[in-house]
Amino acid sequence: MANKKGRAEAHVSKIERELLSRESRYGKRYKWVALSNTTLGVLMAAIDGSIVLISLPAIFNGLGINPLDPSNASYLLWLLLGYTVILSATVVTIGKLSDMFGRVRLYNLGFLVFTVGSILVYLSSLFVHGTSGALSLIVFRLVQGLGGGFLFANSAAIITDAFPHNERGRAMGINQIAGVGGSLLGMIIGGILAATDWHLIFLISVPVGIAGTIWAYLALHELAVVKEKQRIDIPGNVTFALAVTSLLIGLTLALSPYGKSAMGWSNPVVIGLFTAGILLLALFIYIEMKVAQPMLHLRLFRIRAFAAGMLSLLLAGIARGGLQLLLVIWLQGIWLPLHGISFANTPFQAAIAMLPMGIGFLIAGPLSGYLSDKYGARTFTVFGMCVNAVAFLALAALPANFSYPVFMVIIFFAGAGQGIFASPNLAAIMSSVPPQNRGMTGGMVATFFNVSYAISLALFFSLLSSGLISAGLSAYISHGLGSEGLSSGTVNYISSISPTAAIFAAMLGYNPIAHLLPAQILSSMPPSTYRIIIGEHFFPSLLSQPFKASMSTIFYLSAFLAIIAALVSAMRGPKYLHEVGSAAIGSPGH
């Protein structure tokens, strides 16, 4: 143990000497230049990832198509998740290529690709409409996602290269503020721009992208040792990309109704995609164990700090990934309408109501990162997940029509728990690997983060939909409609509405009853009944009890996963192991 600690300390000393040499070449301010530019890149990519969510009604109205029409469901899902799918499928490959050809070089390329994609999306929104417009938006959003993959894969590696090990937690905390803050800003900016001119939603990233591209090209320098003589693991890259794409497309399609089922898990296409994805993933692992220069060094998982950090990242991502969207649905579908907010205004108001969660993260992230630089990551990652678990249990105890000040305090601590965990965990992961593997590691982190989000979203939506059915949503609706004197045929029709369709309608700012009922049924109702049926209180009142029962199950599951993540984090090892990656897995390239 003493010899191992001595080698670790010698390794740290070597890194510190390299950093002093870099400071003499580029100045002591360079690390802040690197942090500010990569933070801008992550901020821009995060804003663009969430700005569409809150703007979907305006986008589809502008295109002239109905997003809730079953024939248009694929457009809705791909506009929501296509960005994530392409980003997740490419970031590990991009990270490996960055280790080979230069992180700054490929980061600059990512800024350029993202900016070109942003320009194409904006031009498409101006000149192409209907289903062709939706398809072109999806394709150019995929281009943006590819650019975002370059940015996400390299930002953490560039920061790790630029900062000494005792300042990385604080730097990662600041950088991650951009990710979480950008997601919240995207929803708020999207709400404002959608009310003004929906085309501006796609224009906003263009000037930022152009400025960031030029700045990155002029200001960033390659600090890592570039090894261009390495071979590209083509079989590994192809099988990994196909495996992740198959699994994520399967998860995306599973959110769509199939036949008489509210979700698509029984869809043969979904089953086939999952089967293909799992088989391709197994083939990928086999290839990586045999190839001389693998895309992904599986031996990195022999480093305890790396393995614990990645596993806790995955568990924490599943625990909280889909919760923000479900909380938004809770606000839009139940709480805001019950408090007199029209369905058309609920998306923007929900984004405002969720601000305390982002504020909690913004406060806790940098502070936790700064303290973890001094005292190590383990204490803070464990504590952060415990805070999350308590917050999830508190949310489970809330009634459907809660007191907002109580809700505000709970989601503030939920965000703070994420911030306490995220910055130290990322800094520990990046510091635990050899410098020549940091680009690949950044790609792995981004992949784990995005895959955990997709898994969480599909899992929680499935639990919510099945929970609404088992909790008797149809019976609640039938009873409510029957008390208004509607005919049995009308009652049966409305009761047969898919819970998923009703949830998506509320999420998109539509009145579920008014939007999902045929015009002839609405026109045949007495005026007094019509006003009640399409009022803000009717559907949320019927939905509240079965919805809250389903949400409580999800919150309990999230709390359990957060506790497991805390236990895994406790196994990451003492602080000094965070810089011994090269000693732990052998010489570079093995």
Description of the structure:
- The protein has 25 helices and no strands.
- The longest helix has 34 residues, at 30-63.
- The chain starts with a helix and ends in a 5-residue tail after the last helix.
- By secondary structure, the chain is mainly alpha-helical.
- Among the domains are: 13-222, Up-down Bundle (Growth Hormone, Chain: A), CATH 1.20.1250.20; 233-294; 473-544, no CATH class.
- The protein is 78% helix and 0% strand.
- Helix 3 packs antiparallel against helix 9, helix 4 (103-127) runs antiparallel to helix 8 (205-219) and helix 5 runs antiparallel to helix 6 (168-196).
What is the β-strand count?
0
**Overall body shape:** globular
CATH architecture of one domain: Up-down Bundle
CATH superfamily of one domain: MFS general substrate transporter like domains
Mean pLDDT value: 80
Brief sketch in words of this structure:
This protein has 590 residues and is an all-alpha fold. The protein has helices at 2-26, 30-63, 73-101, 103-127, 130-162, 168-196, 200-203, 205-219, 234-254, 268-290, 304-320, 323-338, 346-353, 355-375, 378-397, 404-431, 438-470, 473-482, 488-495, 499-507, 512-516, 519-524, 527-533, 538-569, 581-585.
